[in-house]
Amino acid sequence: MDLDAIRYNVDQLTRLAARTGAQTMAVIKADAYGHGALAVGNAALAAGASWLGVASVDEALALRGAGIQSRVFCWLHTVDDNFGPAVAAGIHLSVASLRQLWAVNSAARAVGVEAKVHLKIDTGLTRSGCQPAEWSALVEAAATAQAEGSLEVAGVWSHLACADEPGHPSVDRQAARLDDAYKVAANAGLNPIRHIANSAATLTRPDLHFDLVRPGIAVYGLNPVPGSATLRPAMSFRSTVSLARRVPAGEAVSYGHTWTTESETTLALVPVGYADGIPRTLSGRMEVWLGGRRRPVVGRVCMDQIVVDCGDDPITDGDEVLLFGPGDRGEPTAREWADTIGTIDYEIVTGMYRPRVSRSYVGGRR
Ligand SMILES: *Cc1c(COP(=O)(O)O)cnc(C)c1O
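That's the Alanine racemase sequence above. Prediction below.
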């Protein structure tokens, strides 16, 4: 993991946000999309982010437990979440319903700390948030609680469905609904910040930055709107050749015998497989960077290993294998894996969070 890349990306994003007067929340949910929440969080804060965003209360408390003191926001709750520790730790909490409002409010009373809540309006993603029809009631109840001193409505927010398709009509529709919702809150005497922009909107819709942008994937150098900015992918996935062997012509390779050597060749065994984050559906459709060039992975991707065809080149045990990286040398990228199997690079990098894959960091020093 290249923390200089994280810092470079966050620096780009905070500059973009600052042009519209917005602050930047680096989204580091799911252990920073598989990159390591603590390392990325610290790098992002050093590069100018002033908020960190995570999904769950547990993720937020883990950041506090590790000593992170910045503003932290979390938005995905379960009915048995105990909000007391989060309120006491000053975590900003999303509230999408009256039930959640009461839960946060009573936790705030119990711990004797004013809760910071961000009311979530569903503007059209239709996944979470308060329905527009119930918004006034939620705002009124929150305003009452704020007047009683148990909580502060610090934000009104929403999340976009199709920002990665610039020009998609839903984006403007969602922005208009956020505007309506914000007016209701302002009319109730509240003065919250407003936020809706994910990476794609941060990069392509400065008019939707409002007070705060919430980029996730762009922090990691993966661009949801290719061409909209120059970012540096932070994650590389490396292994080494565990065994290189000369194999005669006509030998079928690996489970199911899906590939057969045409002539005598060197096959390199690499000790990583689908248990280590390589999608099995890449079988027969992937290459690695090994010995100065790309080479095909042949046969099936197994649980723990893959086989690379190296022809007559002098590949030996211990040689470095780059499975994916930023692409600078011509090696495959996470995006290439995603495109090949019909998914998004978010899933590839997030899927690299495996206990057996050791993480190391370069860069990031001040
Ligand atoms: C994941 C997430 C983001 C970041 O989205 P990206 O597309 O990765 O930039 C922002 N806000 C919320 C609520 C999210 O869940």
